[in-house]
């Protein structure tokens, strides 16, 4: 059984379903089904990029081939098969599932925005993806991501085809020829020539927050635009001062955020370095040297969520579509967080240009990781030790050193103390 993004009608109940529900396709009968029509035990988070053996209907046929079984034995066998489906669906870690889904979502969005193609055309239910469209997507992608990330996208496309028993796109001559040139362009064949995303500095963060506050103040009271401006302020500050990854920020739920006497806490139930889901409680002091505005923003934001009737299981940072606040998480596994950071940098550059100030800012140099990297470098400048930052930022290796930024002041202080 495999994940299919869209199909006109379920082969079991005969009804359609919203796109967000998703579809499952049995590898034996090659027919699509709703998740609930396969097994009530399956959640929307299961089978994203996964693969299982057979649907419940094919399992019933297999049981029928065993001969006349007692009714109780049939019920037990069906229950065991449903539990087996759940185990197969969870064979991959949640992070791998989310990453595959996020990359396929980016492919579908590229087709819709750049080529005017439907989601069903980009991610067909049967048959391979269009190789020429894939080639265009990869050429567009190589200008936006680093070498390692680009290889992850190629891997996702190969996994999607392999699970359907189709030839791998990376082995097609049209794709292979472009991959060779792209690898050299992005450095996968000889060192990554692209620079890392720039850290978001504290002055840049404060100016971005100021512009967002102005945007919210000019919007009507209790309007979606005012709520969105407040949501963006909260997202920037939680990510910067909490050293959060974009996946942690985008997946946070309203019930994960709690107010205490002297602090706010944000529970992170999962991260890519916490596959066993032990969880981590991130803390934000109400009185901060450089982030006193966070406490005010969080209080106003929580009141706004309550007015919307938000429950603990609803997203902390919901997506806003068509002028409406939805109960969906920010799309793309955090891609909207990256767009938010880039937009803020563009707004700051425009703000400076209007006042005749030349600021060397390029939005392409910034992304969601700029929050985590900027927060780390600000913490180190404030006297936080590297070991303390590793614990607070949940780094499990020396990868933290790749985030550090040696500015001129730090270099000068180093030699001045010698």
Describe the structure.
With 418 residues, the protein is mainly alpha-helical. The chain has three domains: 2-89, Herpes Virus-1; 94-186, DNA polymerase, domain 1; 202-415, Intergrase catalytic core (hpI Integrase, Chain A, Orthogonal Bundle), CATH 1.10.443.10. It has 16 helices and eight strands. The protein has helices spanning 35-38, 56-64, 71-89, 94-115, 119-122, 131-142, 147-162, 173-186, 202-218, 224-242, 246-251, 293-307, 335-354, 369-381, 386-393, 408-416, and strands spanning 2-4, 23-25, 32-33, 257-259, 263-268, 280-285, 318-321, 324-329. The strands form three sheets. Strands 1-2-3 form a three-stranded antiparallel beta sheet. The chain has a three-stranded antiparallel beta sheet with strand order 4-5-6, with helices on one face. A hairpin with a 6-residue loop joins strand 2 (23-25) and strand 3 (32-33). Helix 2 (56-64) packs across helix 3. It is globular and about 85 Å long.
What does the secondary structure layout of this molecule look like, with pairings?
Layout: E1 2-4, E2 23-25, E3 32-33, H1 35-38, H2 56-64, H3 71-89, H4 94-115, H5 119-122, H6 131-142, H7 147-162, H8 173-186, H9 202-218, H10 224-242, H11 246-251, E4 257-259, E5 263-268, E6 280-285, H12 293-307, E7 318-321, E8 324-329, H13 335-354, H14 369-381, H15 386-393, H16 408-416
Antiparallel strand pairs: 1-2, 2-3, 4-5, 5-6, 7-8
Helix pairs in contact: 2-3, 6-8, 9-10, 9-13, 10-12, 10-14
């Amino acid at each position: 059984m495999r994940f299919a993004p869209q199909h006109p009608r379920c082969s079991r109940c005969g009804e359609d379903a919203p796109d967000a529900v998703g579809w499952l396709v049995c590898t034996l009968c090659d027919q699509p089904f709703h998740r609930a029509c396969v097994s009530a035990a399956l959640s929307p988070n299961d089978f994203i990029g996964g693969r299982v053996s057979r649907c419940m209907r094919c399992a019933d046929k297999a049981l029928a081939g065993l001969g006349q079984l007692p009714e109780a034995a049939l019920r037990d066998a069906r229950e065991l098969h449903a539990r087996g489906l759940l185990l197969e669906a969870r064979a991959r870690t949640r992070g791998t599932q989310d990453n595959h889904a996020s990359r396929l979502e980016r492919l579908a969005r590229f087709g819709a925005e750049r080529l005017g193609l439907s989601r069903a055309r980009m991610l067909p239910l049967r048959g391979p993806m269009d190789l020429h469209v894939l080639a265009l997507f990869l050429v567009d992608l190589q200008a936006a991501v680093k070498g390692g990330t680009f290889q992850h996208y190629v891997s996702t496309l190969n996994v999607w085809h392999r699970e359907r028993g189709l030839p791998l796109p990376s082995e097609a001559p049209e794709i292979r020829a472009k991959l060779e040139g792209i690898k050299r362009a992005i450095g996968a064949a000889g060192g990554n020539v692209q620079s890392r995303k720039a850290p978001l500095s504290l002055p840049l963060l404060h100016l971005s927050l100021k512009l967002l506050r102005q945007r919210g103040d000019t919007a009507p009271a209790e309007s979606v635009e005012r709520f969105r401006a407040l949501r963006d302020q909260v997202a920037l500050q939680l990510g910067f001062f909490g050293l959060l990854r974009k996946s942690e920020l985008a997946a946070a739920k309203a019930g994960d955020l709690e107010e205490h006497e002297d602090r706010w806490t944000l529970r992170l139930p999962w991260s890519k370095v916490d596959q066993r889901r032990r969880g981590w409680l991130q803390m934000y002091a109400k009185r901060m040297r450089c982030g006193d505005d966070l406490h005010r923003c969080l209080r106003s934001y929580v009141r706004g969520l309550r007015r919307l009737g938000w429950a603990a299981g609803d997203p902390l940072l919901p997506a806003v579509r068509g002028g409406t606040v939805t109960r969906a998480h920010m799309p793309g596994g955090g891609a909207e967080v990256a767009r938010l950071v880039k937009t803020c940098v563009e707004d700051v550059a425009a703000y400076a240009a209007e006042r005749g100030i030349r600021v060397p800012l390029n939005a392409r140099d910034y992304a969601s990781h700029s929050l985590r990297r900027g927060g780390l470098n600000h913490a180190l400048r404030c006297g936080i030790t590297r070991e303390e930052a590793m614990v607070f930022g949940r780094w499990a290796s020396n990868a933290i050193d790749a985030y550090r930024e040696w500015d001129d002041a730090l270099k000068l202080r180093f030699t001045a103390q010698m």
